[in-house]
């Protein structure tokens, strides 16, 4: 069996436990925003990671390194630059609709990756629908990619985002949970909902939307 290869060209530590890994491919292949690639690690363990962005033959991933849980994340984040890693072609059906309906995106932590790719790719194609991303992390020190989100907001008038902290109040950021945002007065302007989160939190968010009489066919989700 001939395996496809990616080469790690750059790794950046975004926070104390979140890393950005950029891989280059010798092959031409396109990832649909929202899909994931399965890495075959040096230990031969197979782990799937959503692509955060693709630009020609380079692929960005945002990965949380967990010392005491999901030990394989340590193996991924400890890869050395210019090492090669085998992968399995991108798959999955958590895709952005091509409708002109206004869209609300909900995420936390590194579940950010597929939604960021969906939003950025849509904006770069000059999609005109209103898009808002809401997310939370624990503390201000955990924030990553806010400069990238600010740039999207400045470049595209139809995009906005809200960032909340769950463990602290600061001068700049409000202590709040994303699910607290899901009230009729906050969501009535949106007609499609994209959620990427842990299984229980996806259930919670969908339940709240259901109680607000949101059509289930307009709720798209990915859970891990």
List the helices and strands and how they pair.
Elements: E1 4-13, E2 18-25, E3 36-40, E4 46-50, E5 53-55, E6 58-64, H1 72-77, E7 84-91, E8 103-108, H2 112-124, E9 131-137, H3 146-155, E10 159-165, E11 174-175, H4 178-181, H5 184-187, E12 192-197, H6 199-211, E13 219-223
Parallel strand pairs: 8-9, 8-12, 9-10, 10-11, 12-13
Antiparallel strand pairs: 1-2, 1-7, 2-6, 3-4, 3-7, 5-6
What does this protein structure show overall?
There is one protein chain. The protein has 224 residues and is α/β, with parallel strands linked by helices. The protein folds into two domains: 4-91, Elongation Factor Tu (Ef-tu), domain 3, CATH 2.40.30.10; 103-223, Rossmann fold. It has helices spanning 72-77, 112-124, 146-155, 178-181, 184-187, 199-211, and strands at 4-13, 18-25, 36-40, 46-50, 53-55, 58-64, 84-91, 103-108, 131-137, 159-165, 174-175, 192-197, 219-223. Strands 4-3-7-1-2-6-5 form a seven-stranded antiparallel beta sheet. Helix 2 (112-124) links the parallel strand 8 (103-108) and strand 9 (131-137). The protein is globular, with a radius of gyration of 18 Å.
């Amino acid at each position: 069996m001939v395996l496809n290869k990616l080469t790690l060209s750059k790794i950046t530590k975004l926070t104390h436990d979140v890393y950005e890994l950029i891989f280059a491919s010798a092959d031409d292949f396109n990832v649909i925003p929202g899909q994931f690639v399965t890495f075959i690690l040096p230990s031969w363990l197979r782990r799937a990671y959503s692509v955060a962005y693709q630009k020609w033959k380079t692929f960005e991933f945002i990965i949380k390194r967990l010392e005491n849980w999901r030990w394989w994340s340590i193996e991924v984040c400890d890869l050395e630059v210019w090492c090669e890693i085998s992968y399995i072609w991108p798959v999955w059906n958590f895709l952005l609709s091509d409708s002109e309906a206004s869209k609300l995106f909900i995420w936390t932590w590194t579940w950010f990756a597929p939604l960021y790719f969906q939003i950025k790719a849509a904006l770069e194609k000059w999609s005109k629908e209103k898009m808002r991303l809401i997310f939370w992390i624990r503390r201000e020190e955990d924030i990553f990619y806010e400069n990238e989100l600010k740039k999207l907001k400045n470049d595209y008038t139809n995009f906005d985002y809200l960032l909340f902290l769950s463990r602290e109040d600061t001068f700049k950021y409000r202590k709040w949970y994303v699910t607290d945002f899901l009230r009729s007065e906050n969501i009535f302007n949106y007609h499609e909902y994209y959620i990427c989160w842990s299984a229980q939190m996806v259930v919670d968010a969908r339940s709240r939307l259901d109680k607000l009489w949101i059509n289930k066919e307009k709720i798209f989700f990915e859970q891990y």
